[in-house]
Write a structure and sequence with these properties.
Layout: H1 2-10, H2 32-51, E1 67-77, E2 84-86, E3 95-96, E4 103-105, E5 115-122, E6 128-135, E7 147-159, E8 163-175, E9 179-191, E10 204-221, E11 230-253, E12 257-285, E13 291-300, E14 303-322, E15 325-333, E16 338-347
Antiparallel strand pairs: 1-7, 1-16, 2-4, 3-5, 5-6, 6-12, 7-8, 8-9, 9-10, 10-11, 11-12, 12-13, 12-14, 14-15, 15-16
């Protein structure tokens, strides 16, 4: 499971070592969802902010039938505050940390050591179901910067009325026959400088943008260790992100360079679904902690989480124009600050 988390963080299939699958968290019973939510929250928020970036490099729209092809990379930086989370025992019904820890890493932490979490669940007859599992460390040491990147290809096409339609996509990709992902987005940018004569004679351009992006990732969860206390049948994790952005854009467009900026609003939602059947084995102990046997359980579709992120954003950037070839970079201030950069081929 940790590999798919890194895939989400990088949008790439990169092997990550893990001694025990993240799916072991479902041993936490009713506490599993909250623990999983706190662990993965930064990467889900980072993806929402990241896929909302890089929609434009100028406020100037194409002439009718003009078009551009853009290849870019967005990266949303995870704030230090979101690299760890407080483990408050009162928030959990069945969990404790045996070594007295008070904080645990999120997926984007530089703390890569696993922490053991103990599970004690009353059965109701004076006995307890008992287990422990290794809570995974973060992946910060395995990536070049503590950011959530999303690469993509975008096509812009000029429509009548000084309006551009933009389509961005990452075609369906498969890694190791276990991970699949695809991304698609649609945007509309409309020039409003045309309504404010004689401003339209200046190199200043102003436009409005509305855009939507959908991203889906699936991951097959295998039963890698037949001897452990978790058995997986038809296991799959599904991650889904939807993001919207609405922005006002301005640019100064000269022959060699364009200076652009924007101000607007982000909104996004994401979900995680862990599907399949999972067989769990607990030790059965009496009230004195003596082992008296084991107990097996089965659970279906154990995790169903929802995330959201909203907030204002402000962008500033520059683009170098070499004929139809463009090189650009910009920075966006928002809850998870974002950088975008890439190249474009534009024919107006």
């Amino acid at each position: 499971m940790k590999k798919i988390v890194l895939f989400l963080a990088l949008s790439l299939g990169i092997e990550v070592s893990n001694s025990q699958g993240f799916e072991a968290i479902i041993l936490a019973s009713d506490d599993a969802s909250l623990l999983a939510e706190k662990f993965i929250d930064p990467v889900m928020n980072g993806l929402i902010y990241s896929i909302n970036g890089g929609w434009y490099t100028t406020a100037k729209t194409h002439k009718k039938l003009g078009f551009d092809l853009t290849i870019n990379l967005n990266a949303a930086f995870v704030p230090r505050r979101d690299e760890v989370f407080d483990f408050n025992p009162s928030d959990y019904t069945f969990l404790s940390l045996p070594d007295g820890q008070t904080q645990l890493p999120t997926v984007m932490s530089d703390l890569d050591q696993e922490a053991t979490i103990d599970v004690v669940i009353p059965v109701g007859d004076g006995t307890f179901k008992v287990a422990s599992f290794d809570f995974p460390g973060g992946i910060r040491e395995e990536i070049p910067i503590n950011a959530v990147p999303t690469p993509m290809v975008q096509l812009g096409f000029g429509l009548p009325l000084k309006t551009d339609i933009k389509l961005r996509f990452v075609p369906k990709l498969n890694f190791d026959d276990k991970v699949g992902a695809n991304l698609i987005g649609l945007g509309l940018q409309h020039d409003i400088t045309q309504y404010f004569k004689p401003i339209d004679k200046l190199p200043l351009n102003i436009s409005l943008l509305a855009a939507f992006t959908d991203m889906k990732v699936t991951y097959d969860i295998d039963d890698n260790d037949a001897m452990d206390n978790i058995r997986v049948t038809n296991g799959e994790a599904e991650f889904r992100m939807n993001a919207w952005t609405f922005q006002a854009i301005a640019s100064l467009d000269f022959k060699i360079i364009s200076l652009y900026g924007g101000f607007g609003y982000n909104y996004g939602t994401s979900t995680i679904r862990m599907k399949g059947n999972y067989g769990l084995t607990y030790n059965l102990e009496d009230s004195n902690g003596n082992l008296i046997g084991t107990i097996d359980e089965s659970i279906n579709d154990p995790i169903n989480l929802d995330f959201s992120a909203t907030g204002i954003r402000g962008t500033i950037g520059a683009r170098i124009n070499i004929g139809f070839f463009k090189i650009f970079a910009d920075y966006t201030a928002q809850n998870y600050n974002n950088i975008s950069g890439g190249i474009a081929f534009s024919f107006r």
